[in-house]
Amino acid sequence: MFSYRTLIATDASAWLALRKEGARVAPKGFLVTLDEVRKMDEAGAQKALEFGGMRGVFEDETLVGFCGYRPQQLQRIRHRAELGPFYVTPSQQGSGAAQVMMKGILEEARAGGVAQIELTVAPDNARAIAFYKRQGFQKYGVRPDAIREGGVPECELLYLRWVN
Ligand SMILES: CC(C)(COP(=O)(O)OP(=O)(O)OC[C@H]1O[C@@H](n2cnc3c(N)ncnc32)[C@H](O)[C@@H]1OP(=O)(O)O)[C@@H](O)C(=O)NCCC(=O)NCCS
Fold first, then answer.
1. CATH topology of domain 2-162
2. Which of 12, 123, 134, 153 could crosslink 145 through cysteines, CB 3.0-4.6 Å?
C-alpha cells in the first residue's frame, strides 16, 4: 500500500540514503553526481527538505521514491511548475509507486492552480521517457549542451504536461 506526502526534516536520513542509491544506480536520472551527493550530510539534507520542495512515496513506513516539485513563484509564471528529480528504488520500479507519486503531484498542481508541469530527461533514458509519455507528457524541445560529462556536451529533452 503506497502513500504520498511532502518530505520533512525527519525524513532526511531515508531521503539521503535513497538519493545516494539513485545517483549510484541511475546516474542518467540525475543532474547531481554521486560525489556531490556524498558531500551532503544529514544536517544538509534536513535543511534542503525544510524548503518543502521534495515529495516522497512510501510503502507502509518505508520511503521508496522521491521527486522534486517546484511551482513557480512569480506572478506571470505561477501557472507553471518544475518536476524532478524523479526516482523510485529499483525493487519498486514497475510496482505502481511512480504512478502514485505522479498522481499526488497532479492533485497538488490542480489544487494550487498550476496549469503546466515541466521536466527534463536524458534522450537515452528510455524507461523514464516511456513512463512520462504514459503519464501524458509530451516533448516540446531539446536543450543542446545541457550537460557536460567529462567535458563532452550532451543534450536533454524538454517535456511538459498540461494539468486538466
Ligand atoms: C523513471 C521511473 C521513476 C519510472 O518508474 P517505473 O516504476 O520504472 O515506471 P513504470 O514501470 O510504471 O513505467 C516504465 C515504462 O517503461 C517501460 N520500460 C521498461 N524498461 C524499459 C526500457 N529499457 N526501455 C524502454 N522502456 C522500458 C515499461 O514497460 C513501462 O512502460 P508501459 O507503462 O508503457 O508498460 C523509474 O524507472 C526510475 O526511478 N528510474 C531511475 C531514475 C530516473 O531515470 N528518473 C527519471 C529522471 S528524468
1. Aminopeptidase (3.40.630)
2. 153
Torsion of CA 32, 161, 70, 39, to 10 degrees: -10
Residues 32-78: tens digit of each pLDDT: 999 999 999 999 999 999 999 999 999 999 999 999 999 999 999 99
CB atoms within 10 A of CB 43: 10
Nearest CA to ligand 1 atom 11: 94
65 burial (CB, 10 Å; 0-12 / 13-18 / 19+) is: buried
Instruction: Assess whether the previous peptide bond of 85 is cis (omega < 30° from 0).
Output: yes
**In angstroms, what is the span from residue 75 Cα to ligand 1's centroid?**
34
Q: Taking Cα atoms as reference points, which of 85, 81, 92 lies closest to residue 19?
A: 85
Q: What are phi and psi of 117, to 5 degrees?
A: -115, 130
